[in-house]
Amino acid sequence: MRYLLLCCLMACVACASRPYTVINKGVGGNSTSDLLRRVEQDVVALRPDLVVLMAGTNDMVNSGKLVPYGQYTAQYRQLVQRIRQTGAKVVLMTSLPVDTGYLFQRHRRGLYDTDPNVRIDSACAIVREIAASEQVYCLDLHEVFVRRGEPNRTAASLIVNAANMGREDGIHPTAAGYRFMAAQLYDYLKKHRLLRRYRRILCFGDSITYGAFMDGAGTDTGDTYPAGLKRLLSTR
């Protein structure tokens, strides 16, 4: 009995001493269609223990990538199911609200059949339903950002705007916004006890995962949310 207890203790110590790996597989402009085309190469082939999936902003607000809700639901569910087949744990993150005033400076208003934030709201509801039906985890970042009054056009906003970065963007987080995302994700993973065994973490998504406008964009360094998550994990 003592031998078995010692073996278990040694195994726990060995697991705790293993470093975390965080892989950034965000690509700007990607929709769920694009993610499906690269899921085998960028997720399955890398054998992650845990995958954080954030997708839907382009499907819902990028006028060149818009899809009906039914297509979005089918493609998102297909992504989740393919990732689950690898044995990886899956954490979904809902899309952030957007500043439609800035958006309509770049995309013609007439291309949208409804307000883009209504489409984002609908996409978030779809993600929550898929998480429940596929029995995977879901961090509702959209709700958290809305509760903080985002997006707004002050210098303190967590979304890029003219006052804080000199860019009339209204979609992507600032460096502080990415740190906030990383902290929310870290707390969620810790709360749900997903940091004990799942140490190879892959972040899969679009330009928000990539880290648009940030130092270290596309990597686990600099100001991206995968970089922020990696820093937080290093303190465990």
Automatic annotation (TrEMBL):
Pfam families: Lipase_GDSL_2 (PF13472). SUPFAM superfamilies: SGNH hydrolase. It comes from the Bacteria. One of its GO terms (molecular function) is phosphatidylcholine lysophospholipase activity. Keywords: Signal. Residues 1-16 form the signal peptide. InterPro entries: Ester_Hydrolysis_Enzymes, SGNH_hydro, SGNH_hydro_sf. Residues 19-179 form the SGNH hydrolase-type esterase domain. This is Esterase. It comes from Chitinophaga oryzae.
